[in-house]
Amino acid sequence: MIRLALALIFSVAAVHMAVARSNTAPKVKTALEENTAIPGQPLIYRITLLVPTWLPTPPLFPNIEVPNVMVRLPSRASGPTSETIDGETWSGVTRSYRLYPLVPGRFQIPTGTIKVVYADPETRQPIETEVATEAFEIIGALPDGTQDLVPFVAANQISLDRQVEGDPASLQPGDALKITTKASISGAPPMVLPSLEGTQEFDGVSFYPSEPVIEEKEDRGLLSGSREETFTLVAENAGEYEIPEYSLSWYNLKSGKIETAQVPSIHLSVVGGAEGESQETAGANLRSLLIGAGISLIFIVGLIFLSRWLAPRILGAVRERWSVFKYSETYAYLALRHQVYRRNFHAVYRTGTEWRSRLNELDAGLDWTNYDAALIELGKGHYRKTAPDKHSGMNIAWRRLETVIQDLRKTRSNRIRRHRQNSLPPLNPSPKNARL
Predict the structure, then answer these.
(1) Mean pLDDT of 250-270
(2) What global pTM score does this model have?
């Protein structure tokens, strides 16, 4: 009976501690004022984090990244807050986001994780934990009557301006014009502005566009900015050309109407050679083409003749060099290294014998003790049954053989270097040894 009572007491205490622990865990509240906005307009999303004590370090809020949704933090995105829960004052932080759907549609905002460090209510020691935010949906919706507005752009004000550097009325072939088109927007981010390329390439004029420049500004939560595009026009042939006007239709958020901003067309006059001069130029180009074709034909015939004369000699020289190389120490060394890489013991023994013979012809004073020991160790591991846990020992033996082979070649190279240094004449010969 006593044991049953103690068990009951411990169970109640455990439940009480679990409830107390859950009651002191950080709490997260989220709020979305509206879930639908016109593309390019913000939706305010707030996250409130509360703890029963205090936050020794600022919490790490999640980054929201969704395609076709622009996320901005206002100038004072985070701020302190407090709330009374069960008669106790909880403190925390509030984080605000501005979510801009850039195109019409539905967008799912996934769950996020907040990393929190707060003081334990009993021990005052820091506790690290993570809390999650719930997923939600936002909608980009078009106003009535704007379904045919492509691309859709909504703002308080949009203006267009076009600047031309140069004189389009008196161009010579080869002359260039720099044309800059700029769109300014207020009440929406400049990211919603479409491309300003209102030109169509045509014969006689070449276009070289530059990367667009986008500038964004914010004033008390109101976004504005500009998009600027520049292209360089190069006149090629004489004639009259027309760069068409560019227009952009947009939805006015204040008036609820569709308005259009536009810049005028640009007329180009390219003056140059007359028709007779063009014919003369065409004839000169034809002559140049024929001369170039004749030179190319002569070059090809000469190349064929030389190849038929030189090919046998080149092939003979290559065969001779290859024959010499096959009987060199380097060839034998490369063959040995290849078999070591393949871990082929029998082939290593055969190619190693050939390499040893050729290296001894170059330097008979090399010490082969370590090489023989490495081969013996490999032979022992190769001819006895190796358990699965012994493979590491074989790998060590193979690596030892690689090291011994490299040391032998290095010893040979060092001897050659010392021999050359000792065979050099003295830098300051004495008058007795100097030759007249």
Answers:
(1) 92
(2) 0.56
